[in-house]
Amino acid sequence: MLPGNVMEIMASPSSLFSAYASFSGSMMLVRTMVNDIIPRPVQAYLWQAIRRLFKANPPVQEHLTLVVEEYFHGQNEIFDAAEIYLRSKIDANTDRLKISKSSDEGVLVSFAKDETILDTFDGVELKWKFVTVTTRRQRRVSYDEGEESQEQYFELSFDKKHKDKIIGSYVPFVIEKSSELKGKEKVLKMFTFGGYGRSWSSVDLQHPSTFDTLAMEPEQKKAVMNDLDRFLGRREFYKRVGRAWKRGYLLHGPPGTGKSSLVAAMANYLKFNVYDLQLSNIRSDSQLRELLLETGNSSILVIEDIDCSIDLPERSAPTQKDPRSELTLSGLLNFIDGLWSSCGDERIIVFTTNHVEKLDPALLRPGRMDMHIHMSYCMYHSFKLLAANYLGIPDTDDENHCHRRVFTEIKGLLAKTQVTPAEVAEELMKSEDPHVALDGLVKLLKQKKRETPADGKLETVEEIEDQLKEKVKIE
């Protein structure tokens, strides 16, 4: 039971109001005295100390966010390492994922847009976030919406006080861990440049071509593989002689002879990413230089149909334009073997053309295109490989072979006919019955034999084989 005077005070509103007025007046007097006696800087310090003393909640952590862009003066190795490392951190708490699958590999799981992954390192909590930004660039001439370009990056957030530990220890740990994971399974990438975006865009390279399935003459195939192996093992040699660690290949021959398949086979053999560059999308030498600086090490740069992709002004031809505003032959040559060619290691450059005679001789000299590979018409060995791949017919010359008769007929027709491996493969795909497919190929070859070549000249198998021995040049 409360005392009587307390009950009276509580029951009287006028008493409560009187007490409040008295307290307010006292506080105003104290405030005036404090302002007159204590300097304002001292007041601010005291109030800050009082707030810290009586604050109920713990202090809020100050977070730092590191942005890991996909490209930074070239392919960002930290971005690649983070992408591989974080795949191993995906667990049941991840809400959204992106999956893909190639024909010869398992399901690949990667991050969806704006997905976050939590990680810990030496007691420090970290949060990764995958961000994708899509921008649309308006074309100057037309009024359409233009083309889209995407930028991808990771955001790494943590308590700011651990900055030195994260940058000095955690980031190297991620790079080292990703190297271990990459050795177990590397997903090859195909990079393209559309002409309106600011950098390369990539997709998984899923081309199944290998040297085992490539319709190519054995001696020529072995020469290419030996040259690639020799190139990979000579890093110290290139450094010692003062040359950029790169190799140039010129693939030339009629359409359909397997030039693109050879590039894919090289990529799968070396485990190199591929950069497919269309010169028609390049506006100037400076843009070409910026793009090539963004290519990663251990990669293949492919420029297809270089003879007809763009008209490159001659180095000696007079021009009224600013050289910085156009793509020139000298700019391309400077990248191939000039000072800019040394910006990167373990790189392969591949030019393809259907008409080697149309190329400027400056592109063909040693040091630029080190190995010239003539992709010829289909010969008998290439046919047997295609028959084994498409029809499951063993590659054998046994006299008791059930298809011996038709094989012999095809061998004779190939010696007198110009037909590409692509045409042979297309004919073999028309039926799963080997007898039907081979009969169709015989009809095709007989039809080709009756046709007269455009130049009135037909090369024999012996002539083509002699050309291969001369044109497969290894430095």
Automatic annotation (TrEMBL):
Q: Which GO terms describe its biological process?
A: response to stress
Catalyzed chemical reaction(s): ATP + H2O = ADP + phosphate + H(+)
**What are the alphabetically sorted keywords of the record?**
ATP-binding, Hydrolase, Magnesium, Nucleotide-binding
**Which residue numbers delimit the AAA+ ATPase domain?**
245-379
**What would be one Pfam family of this protein?**
AAA
SMART domains tied to this protein: AAA (SM00382)
Co-factor(s):
Mg(2+)
Q: Which domain of life is it from?
A: Eukaryota
Q: Which CDD domains match?
A: RecA-like_BCS1 (cd19510)
Q: Name one GO molecular function term.
A: ATP hydrolysis activity
| Coiled-coil segments on the chain, per record | none
**Which protein family is named in the record?**
Belongs to the AAA ATPase family. BCS1 subfamily.
Record protein name field: AAA+ ATPase domain-containing protein
